[in-house]
Amino acid sequence: MKVVKFGGSSVANATQLRKVADIVLDDPERKVVVVSAPGKRSSDDVKMTDLLIELAGKVIGNEDYDTALSAVMDRFREIIQELELSEDLTETIQKNIQYIISSHESAEWTLDALKSCGEDGSAQILSAYLQSKDVKAAYVNPKEAGIIVSDEPGQAQVLDESLEQLYKLHEREGILVVPGFFGYSKEGRLVTFPRGGSDITGSIVAAGVKADLYENFTDVDSVYCVNPNIVSNPKQITSLTYKEMRELSYAGFSVFHDEALIPAFKAKIPVCIKNTNNPQAPGTMIVAENEAGYGRVTGIASDKGFLTLYVSKYLMNREIGFGRRLLQILEDENISFEHAPSGIDDMSVILREEELYGEKEERILARIQEELDVDMVNIERNMAMVMLVGEGMNSTIGLASQATRAFREAEVNIEMINQGSSEVSMMFGVDAEGMERVVQYLYREFFE
Amino acid sequence: MKVVKFGGSSVANATQLRKVADIVLDDPERKVVVVSAPGKRSSDDVKMTDLLIELAGKVIGNEDYDTALSAVMDRFREIIQELELSEDLTETIQKNIQYIISSHESAEWTLDALKSCGEDGSAQILSAYLQSKDVKAAYVNPKEAGIIVSDEPGQAQVLDESLEQLYKLHEREGILVVPGFFGYSKEGRLVTFPRGGSDITGSIVAAGVKADLYENFTDVDSVYCVNPNIVSNPKQITSLTYKEMRELSYAGFSVFHDEALIPAFKAKIPVCIKNTNNPQAPGTMIVAENEAGYGRVTGIASDKGFLTLYVSKYLMNREIGFGRRLLQILEDENISFEHAPSGIDDMSVILREEELYGEKEERILARIQEELDVDMVNIERNMAMVMLVGEGMNSTIGLASQATRAFREAEVNIEMINQGSSEVSMMFGVDAEGMERVVQYLYREFFE
To answer: How many domains does chain B have?
Structure first.
């Protein structure tokens, strides 16, 4: 059994939905389909979910919501009509939305429930379309499927009992279409996942049914080994491990939300990233282990927008607790840090630029000076991180040498090297100005 | 005016003291001399300070101390007789020791005061010897010189007012001989510095008199650029900066106690390491800044005996405060850490092996598991650190490439790289087994 998930661009309009149907029908193993809400039809279009959020805003604010509701229904109607489906479907979808609006629940729940209507509508439409092609298919509501989550609107986490109930989907016949993005609490209330949560649904369903494969259909042929904006026509990654995917996602690869895959990872379900617009392309496999790739660089991730907070103090390393106290100051301001290299008399903390600014920055600098009595504290902005990712990198002799050679040939100074914690990646800090150049040289070193 | 300090081996016996006198007289600028206690005359000899500690032990324990006292006095007497000085000197030294023994002060003070008799005796002897050669010279007790310290026996810190009073030494004529290792509290009580404190005295005196040069005479020609046990006949360092010296001292260079130099550093007094047994050799200069050396590797320090504490947890980087809490657990057990590289889902802490063992280790592992709910925690021992030191290293393109190439050629895997906090060093972690080999290849890369 395969579980197939289609992202927003794949269900944006009738044309795309026809491709989806073709893909599903192309492989009899594709039995469970998870769908997102209709995405943008063009680059200046609006996503369905955003239209629903606008609608929710009007409803919650007790304003006239007719225009907002029409915008939503027009989108659905357009798809339904192009697919030559019954107007009843449009009415069903509208009734559901109206029911939520009239329910007079809390603002939080109303927003959550309305947001979910995009995915729900997609699922109803796809199911009806498959039926119209004489295919045995059914829409399955998440509650029925067994997607039970914690009751945290917008932040729901799937509960373990969910997996057992999902397995029972094997007992049903035909193709099952499940809307992504939301589940139900134990008490039966609708709750949504964090944004991009259709990936989470797909992952959970794949884990629950112990799928042979979880196919994640999006709008790129594969995961690339480097940002295509920096290196044109880069090599495609044929396969990588869960760990490698997670590390790459961290610093710039945004094919999908890496945390969404965790249920699949835990259940060791293989994942394949494919392109709805080019379904014959092999795509990228994401697997638990990949012996063939051990010791090889799988991908190069890069991102700007980091800064270094640097402190120095004579005999810092004699003060047990100094590092901890510095981190405490950051934690008090709810700041998350990337890495904190320390030396004998100094320590740096690498942060994302948005973590430190304005008054917060002043407060932190003042606290560091007063509480830690440092000799010097300063902030250097405009740093970029470049990360080499690959299983077994930290046991591979010579890799660091190859990597640093690329930096030298690019004539870019390495401001920071972080190797040693992760078994799967090696992180470099450079001035943002040199980032693209260095990435190009690294690509040449490792992929050509 | 130059301040000259002689270490234990330089004042161990009459032969050495004659060399000391020759050195001092060789340069009329050498006006203030700081001396240690007599060191070992041969490799299985006992240092004077250890004899005094034994004596103190007997006295404090109310045991018969005659043999211990004789051992001390025999050493002094031997030197005094060989230098053909008056027996009165022996009596003076013995009276001073007896005075301390009979004073019935606290055990702490008694130990402290007896320990100081080695340096004090050396200073008296050298001063008398110079006088016997018709040189105007005087023994100057630290209280008289103005070495005022905090009242922490064995841990005394010099106070700022000390420097002002020391400057008045300029008003005195002749050569001034000051015993190292101890000072006096504001209340007039004798207090010793931490072990090796003659270096501290020399440094303080050099800062106080604003010396043109502080010459630190020991038993090696210079500071070597690498451990001579790993690379034979290594190049000598002609000059390095305070920062570089401090970093090198951290990981294995034990020419002297680097913290002792801090008063000289703060006052920007140039320091020169020289050899009593080869005083004409130029030695090694330690200075505030060294433009000529910028961007060059000055030395390679290396040390075994480290371990890595490794923890991993899915989504660790989303838990603000995780790193701080891990460090807190270590701090609660009074553990000092060297470096803590963190990744996305994992974090390592590099410790010296002696910090973690037995029950302490069990407690920490248990706390980490319970309080941080990690997926995995383990300890890897037998790690060695190799450190490249040099001002401007972190701004020098290509250095990391050169360094990592040496590792590759040595066929040693780099387990950890820490670059980015210190401007002056770059730290590598390797399995202890490969350390010497890698150091040899690094030496070849950077010094040949």
So the answer is: 2
